[in-house]
Amino acid sequence: WFSAAFPNLVAFRGIWAATAKLPGNSGCCSPNSFPRSALRRNPERSSRPHTRSRSLIEGPPSPLPDEEEEDPYILVRRKTSSEFSEDEMDTPRRKRCGPMTFPHIIRPVEEITEEELNNICETVRDKVYNRVLGSTCHQCRQKTTDTKTNCRNPECFGVRGQFCGPCLRNRYGEEVRAALLDPNWFCPPCRGICNCSFCRQREGRCATGVLVYLAKYHGYDNVHAYLKSLKQELEMQE
Where is the Zinc-finger domain (predicted)? Predict the structure, then answer.
């Protein structure tokens, strides 16, 4: 009656038995052929949940080790030589100029057109990404079509003096329009206040990430002002 009720199952069992008898397939479907890691095991005693019955037998759970307190000044504290990773120690420092470096062109204020001023990006949502026609921002390293700053320092090189509107405002509290109309404006890297990840790594400091929201939470409208206040607090304590 079993074969009449389940004809497909019987046929499947026949195919399975025939396949197991093929050369090279002996024991491939036996329980012993599965890896030991795939077999079900009871979890380690230390990883089991501490239930009420377990407390009656083994006593209360042991307290967790105290976690180390985070350094509130880690963003402004320089790394020591022992804190650098092997990759950071082996990475050669980038040269200031090279054969592939873009030439730095200082544009006078008279050349800045009203169209360029109107093309300044106010928010991140206004950015238009274009790998071919876009220009790179030194801070976010995104290639967009909006107008960037122009460093008036003759010793500046490449495109490191280019900053987009949101980055210059959120990271340094400055405006691209005012920078373009200032004939003596120097970019943050030339002033030694750049807080991008690359420049901070060269100075032995960690990257800040998206820090503008934390800076505004503490009452600062830009990252540079917040980091400056932390540095002053650290110097007062030392």
Answer: 130-227
Q: Each residue of 171-221: pLDDT tens digit?
A: 999 999 999 999 999 999 999 999 999 999 888 888 888 899 999 999 999
Sign of CA dihedral 235, 233, 176, 170: positive
Asked whether the CA dihedral 167, 169, 172, 175 is positive or negative, the reply is: positive
Residue 30 — pLDDT band, cuts 50, 70, 90? low
Q: Quote the pTM value.
A: 0.63
Closest by Cα among 41, 75, 66 to 205:
75
